[in-house]
């Protein structure tokens, strides 16, 4: 008597490499999980690590999967170390999916634009497809060049479009100041992680010095980091990537205790991880902001049926 545990690794290429301050990302690799109860109820989950954000590596996640017994006792979730946040999310969401009716919440999405000058034309078909919030990665080319593209992009975008910028921690304090001056002149929804996490005090100072809202992302990758930043006084936007934040149950508890301005965001999961993330977004995110799950156009194939997706592996 118990639940059967299975896992299958996957890899899928981006339609075009994703350029950020970290370099080029060509393939998304992760692991799909399936739990099957005695009565044949099935729950899918997904482990989608992003090690450069501070999650475990794919290898560490695979090792954890291989060590977990294939037959699990019926009513116990295995204890999973906080050093394996993507595994915590993957397993717990599979568990939840097995025991609850899963639905796909319909939320306004923010569409991710390509970095550089490509954004100047890429927003248009996305606007036509219904997106009203866009995110553009900066700190990929020189600030001089990117500031020019930014001014162009702002002029091209319809007035009711919202724009978010994301530096992935790649600016110097001087560059961040320059960007924030430009943002104050041009209006953006927010500037995400201008400086790396270790410059937390500078981030607080910048938020106090400019009208433009700042968001933390890399600084709050895991629930423990999110708690720390909150305790140290951060009250502005936080980007929550549930797939690497850790236990959904603990994340719920934190978000229901403290009033945080959270934008839930994808890490390029398949439809399985996305559904679990969107459910948390609908429950815990700031409904006045678009969620960061407008990323499916970055892949050629995006299978929505979980059984079919599982069968491809
Ligand atoms: Mg970000």
Strand adjacency order, main sheet? 11-10-9-8-7-6-5-12
- The CATH class assignment of the largest domain is Alpha Beta
Number of strands: 12
Q: What is the third-level CATH name, the topology of the largest domain?
A: TIM Barrel
CATH architecture of the largest domain: Alpha-Beta Barrel
In short:
The protein has 313 residues and is α/β, with parallel strands linked by helices. It has eleven helices and twelve strands.
Descriptive notes:
The protein is built from eleven helices and twelve strands. Helix 4 (143-156) runs parallel beside helix 5. It has two domains: 3-102, 2-Layer Sandwich (Enolase-like, domain 1); 109-298, TIM Barrel (Alpha-Beta Barrel). The chain has helices at residues 58-67, 85-99, 119-128, 143-156, 173-186, 200-209, 223-231, 242-245, 248-257, 271-284, 306-311, and strands at 3-20, 23-36, 42-47, 71-72, 109-112, 133-137, 162-166, 190-192, 214-216, 237-240, 262-264, 291-294. The chain is globular and about 65 Å long. The protein is of the alpha/beta class. Magnesium ion binds next to loops.
